[in-house]
């Protein structure tokens, strides 16, 4: 069994945003030498996500509007008890829950085994600081 | 390490629906010869899901009503910017996000290691065309 | 390839609640002897979750309030068709869908490869009875 671990550094200038990390994950798979196996890609932080969807600007706008509706930002510690800790990011924990922490992707013939539109994104909901994405590859 | 890759073709006559694919996944596990390991099952499309829940008709009805409430269909490109591309399926991308892209299931003694009611479903939110589910098995 | 399977018994006195199971999962990883690999942790039941987030009491309160808003309890079989089966837990199936069934975590140097605040939780939405969490480790 071969394995490889990589960490990708993410730093978004704003509070929220999506970054396409597909080519970085493919590069890690290629570097691993794994021809068949699995790759786990996860946010190492609890206010950001890794997910798979379409690389389409309008859809990303829609995700932002929709998440704000389902889990609105509100610094008021009466609205979210988490904000009694001095934080104001309770909504980011909820948004990340909708979008997910991780994806697991099949590796076939050394490539991410993807359908026609699948792309891997990092989703940030509490940015302006450096965070990390873990890429873990196992296989042979 | 053994591995096996299979693709299941899915074609739903309507826009939405759920299909129990548990026996097809078990058949792939049996064919792989893997006695202990993991199986990844994921939609290869970004407007459909693979998820685990109960095979109960009433619950599937409830999922449909609930998803329509959380992420309503609306072809208006002002409601969803994604629909400015000429598509009308922005809601399907959001519904799939709630239900999830993939499941990872343990294989023990050559069987899906499931609790009493766990069943694997394909969830379609933008049907009337052929799509694919990827089954990737690794183990020994 | 090494592998190990463990089942954790969960019994919550109330209908809902969150239990930090991180140390139990780490203990299983240690017992497996796996130094690099993956661990799958999933609920074996369809009205409970395994997820990763912060071990902060206020946030857990917020999750409860938020889930009740997105998927309210309602025993009325006209509100949820699933409840026509004689059950009253349709909302628990929906809540579990938001929070997720499973997590996959990287193992590096024999440890859960976590960011600073990541903790693994069992989330119960239909308690007062014994349920099980599956821990499946593969690697070497």
Write the layout of secondary structure elements.
Three copies of one chain form a homotrimer.
Chain A: E1 2-11, E2 17-20, H1 22-32, E3 36-43, E4 48-53, H2 57-70, H3 90-99, E5 102-108, E6 111-112, E7 119-124, E8 130-139
Antiparallel strand pairs in A: 1-8, 2-7, 3-5, 3-8, 4-7, 5-6
General description of the model:
- 3 copies of one chain form a homotrimer.
- With 140 residues, chain A is an alpha+beta fold.
- The model of chain A has no long low-confidence stretch (mean pLDDT 97).
- The termini of chain A are close together.
- The longest helix of chain A has 14 residues, at 57-70.
- In chain A, strands 1-8-3-5-6 form a 5-stranded antiparallel sheet, covered by helices on one side. A 3-stranded antiparallel sheet of chain A has the order 2-7-4.
- The radius of gyration of chain A is 16 Å and the shape is elongated.
- Chain A contains 3 helices and 8 strands.
- Chains in contact: A-B, A-C, B-C.
- The A-B interface holds A 1, 36-38, 51-54, 56-59, 61-63, 66, 70, 98-100, 103-106, 108, 113-118, 138-140 and B 1, 3, 5, 38, 40, 42-46, 70-71, 80-85, 90, 93-94, 96-98, 100-102, 104, 131-132, 134, 136, 138.
How is the quaternary structure best described? homotrimer
- Physical arrangement of strands within the biggest beta sheet of chain A: 1-8-3-5-6
Class from helix and strand fractions of chain A: alpha+beta
Q: Summarize the largest interface: chains and residue counts.
A: A-B, 34 and 33 residues
**Roughly how many Å is the radius of gyration of chain A?**
16 Å
* Secondary structure tally, helices of chain A: 3
Query: Mean pLDDT score of chain A, rounded?
Result: 97
Helix-residue proportion of chain A: 25-40%
* Biggest β-sheet strands, sense, barrel of chain A: 5 strands, antiparallel
Stretches with pLDDT under 50, minimum 5 residues of chain A: none
Net shape of chain A:
elongated
Order of helices and strands of chain A: EEHEEHHEEEE
* Percentage of residues in DSSP E strands of chain A: 35-45%
- Alpha carbon gap, first and last residue of chain A: 5 Å
Task: Compute the number of strand runs of chain A.
Answer: 8
